[in-house]
Design a protein that fits this description.
Blueprint lengths: L2 H18 L4 H16 L4 H6 L3 H19 L2 H11 L8 H14 L3 H20 L3 H14 L7 H12 L6 H22 L2 H5 L29 H18 L5 H14 L5 H7 L2 H19 L11 H15 L1
Helix pairs in contact: 1-2, 1-15, 2-15, 4-12, 4-13, 4-14, 4-15, 6-7, 6-8, 7-8, 8-10, 12-13
Length: 327
């Protein structure tokens, strides 16, 4: 079996173990990349380490930190309240509003995974308060997060655009984004109405109810309470706008800009840095980076001419076998 095939089997093993155990697939993938690459593929440790996607890690950390700060200082909740009030008491429109909010959030930076982590608690609190089935809210938020996932600003969008450029597709970032947005919008609204969303329109005015007991991680969203924005939240919004403009208009590195904006919020006291770091989806960040490191071994297992690298110990073993066989 070639080293490339062994690397592929290691990737499959990591995926299976992540499903049946509590081990983090990211840390497991990094370990397997070292074992397979160094001891079976003859790849130097430094080259294995080079396979770790540092630019992607920087982007994920910077963006998720900035938007985690926006969550802990109430900026996201402050945006949600007036958005719900725009629904004018129609329960059926509330999940649609969360679709719009999550799609925008996903498009301007965090991407699909972080957007779900940030908006799901707020959305479920609103669903519990206004008697909306959680499944319907899930359909809207999950698809909305995926709808904005390949934005040129989002981490997954950066990856998709780099892949497209690598195969010769230039200036396709906006067509890819809009096509993905349209497909997920159709999927979200189709599922919403098929699974009973239309019934919410006949329910009349919003009927407030308390969120399920035991789910107190996010306070209920009461749109009737008009909470004015503080300077901390306005500064957070300004940093988010700065991030978007810096990347789209000035083509700056999204990770460095996001970290800089996050540090501005930290030094000014606009956001609690320690709590924001705890809210960051570290398991997901390491999953993406770890799997990418293991996949890089598949590329490093081949020479420029396409032949597979074989470690010296295997070459010696094969040589002895040939000598013994010829004798």
């Amino acid at each position: 079996m070639s080293i490339a095939a062994i690397s592929l089997c290691a990737l499959v093993l990591a995926l299976v173990l992540s499903c049946v155990t509590k081990v983090n697939i990211g840390f497991l993938s990094i370990t397997l990349a070292w074992l397979v690459g160094t001891y079976l593929g003859g790849i130097p440790v430094a080259q294995v380490v080079a396979g770790f996607p540092t630019p992607l890690f920087l982007t994920l950390v910077g963006i998720t930190l900035l938007f985690a700060q926006a969550q802990v200082n109430g900026t996201l909740d402050g945006i949600t309240r007036p958005a719900i009030r725009l629904c004018r008491g129609n329960t059926g429109i509330v999940p649609m509003m969360f679709f719009v909010l999550t799609a925008i959030l996903s498009s301007i930076g965090p991407g699909n995974i972080a957007s779900c982590a940030l908006m799901a608690p707020i959305g479920m609190a609103a669903a519990g308060r206004y008697g909306i089935p959680p499944f319907l809210m899930t359909i809207m938020i999950a698809n909305a997060a995926s709808a904005g996932s390949v934005s040129p600003v989002a981490p997954t969008g950066v990856i998709a655009n780099n892949i497209a450029a690598g195969i010769g597709l230039q200036n396709t970032q906006w067509p890819i984004y809009f096509n993905n947005l349209i497909v997920h919008t159709i999927a979200a609204f189709s599922g919403y109405f098929i699974f009973g969303g239309w019934k919410l329109f006949s329910a009349g005015r919003q009927k407030k109810s308390q969120p399920p007991a035991g789910n107190q991680s996010q306070p209920p969203v009461d749109a009737s309470v008009d909470v004015p924005f503080t300077w901390k939240q306005w500064l957070t919004l300004a940093m988010i706008v700065t991030l978007v403009l810096s990347v789209i208009v000035f083509n700056l590195n999204v990770g460095f800009v996001a970290l800089t904006c996050a540090l501005v919020l930290t030094f000014t006291g606009a956001a609690e840095d320690t709590l924001a770091v705890k809210r960051m989806p570290w398991k997901v960040i390491m999953m993406v980076c770890g799997v990418t490191t293991l996949i890089a071994i598949l590329e490093n297992c081949q020479q420029p001419d396409g032949s597979v690298l074989v470690p010296e110990v295997l070459r010696k073993w094969v040589g002895r076998e040939r000598i013994g066989g010829s004798g």
